[in-house]
């Protein structure tokens, strides 16, 4: 707060990204008094990164359709005067012809396969918006193929990459923008040309490649464990059946968690030089 106040005489010199971590999947996992504390902080942020549930908490709108999503982001812009919003982990109903739901998230259920099918229920997406001067939303959407694997820390990775890529996109834009408060583009800038949209493309390109390679390494590691277990299960043979079962389950959980640790360092070139394959599109629904 002090840093932002000191930078007020130099618009564009300070940019605050806030991830309002409060809960997910319809459940608050922080103390109840944290919610109003975050609501008090949001007006001071330049960009917030809520998931669907957190966007619902901030807006007071239950997101059950594309229209609700637009309304929720607009309310966040207008209520908190926060210039930039990216909403992750959104789950919307699929098309009428499909019995599956479209899951839009940065992490998905634990599985061992990669889905490359382009059906909506096999795609992940992120929605973003930079507000106009009247605080209305300029929404865009970018989709990537779903990786059916649970990864820990993707939210932190997304936020960290977004800081750098948004600054890069702003400094590649007009010199005037970098000296504009909160780096808000003029109203005539199209949704797909927003620095926030360009940054999101690069961030998701890096994340998709790194997570894809992480999942391949994870599957190989778990396969090695499976082969080794035929000889190593004897260490639990002396335990009663229930204790033995619990010990094996605990070992499996720990192995799965360790194997799914993001291989960031060994894939750093994909962070530095992402190949953008998934483009943003305007979202006017």
UniProtKB/TrEMBL annotation:
Pyridoxamine kinase/Phosphomethylpyrimidine kinase domain mapped to chain residues: 15-95
Keywords: ATP-binding, Kinase, Nucleotide-binding, Transferase
A molecular function GO annotation: ATP binding
SUPFAM superfamilies: Ribokinase-like
A single GO cellular-component term on record: cytosol
EC number: 2.7.1.35
Pfam families reported for this sequence: Phos_pyr_kin
InterPro entries hit by this protein: PM/HMP-P_kinase-1, PyrdxlKinase, Ribokinase-like
Family: Belongs to the pyridoxine kinase family.
Protein name per its UniProtKB record: pyridoxal kinase
UniProt source species: Trichophyton soudanense CBS 452.61
Lineage: Eukaryota, Fungi, Dikarya, Ascomycota, Pezizomycotina
């Amino acid at each position: 707060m002090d840093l932002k106040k000191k930078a007020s005489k130099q618009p564009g010199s300070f940019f605050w990204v806030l991830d309002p971590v409060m809960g997910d999947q319809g459940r608050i996992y922080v103390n109840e008094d944290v919610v109003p504390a975050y609501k008090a902080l949001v007006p001071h942020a330049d960009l917030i990164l809520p998931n669907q549930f957190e966007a619902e908490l901030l807006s007071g709108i239950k997101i059950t359709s594309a229209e609700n999503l637009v309304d929720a982001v607009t309310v966040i812009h207008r209520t908190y005067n926060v210039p930039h919003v990216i909403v992750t982990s959104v789950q919307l109903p699929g098309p009428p012809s499909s019995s599956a739901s479209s899951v839009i998230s940065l992490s998905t259920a634990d599985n061992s396969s990669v889905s490359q099918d382009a059906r909506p229920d096999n795609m992940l997406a992120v929605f973003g918006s930079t507000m106009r001067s009247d605080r209305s939303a300029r929404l865009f959407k970018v989709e990537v193929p779903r990786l059916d694997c649970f990864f820990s820390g993707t939210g932190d990775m997304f936020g960290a990459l977004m800081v750098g890529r948004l600054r890069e996109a702003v400094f590649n834009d007009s010199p005037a923008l970098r000296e504009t408060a909160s780096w808000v583009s003029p109203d005539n800038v199209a949704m797909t040309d927003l620095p926030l949209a360009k940054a999101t493309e690069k961030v998701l390109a890096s994340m998709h490649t790194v997570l894809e390679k992480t999942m391949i390494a994870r599957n190989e590691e778990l396969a090695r464990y499976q082969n080794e277990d035929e000889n190593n299960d004897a260490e639990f043979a002396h335990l009663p059946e229930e204790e033995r079962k619990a010990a094996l389950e605990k070992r499996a959980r720990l192995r799965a968690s360790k194997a799914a640790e993001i291989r960031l360092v060994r894939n750093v070139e994909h962070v530095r030089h992402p190949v953008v394959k998934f483009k943003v599109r305007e979202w006017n629904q």
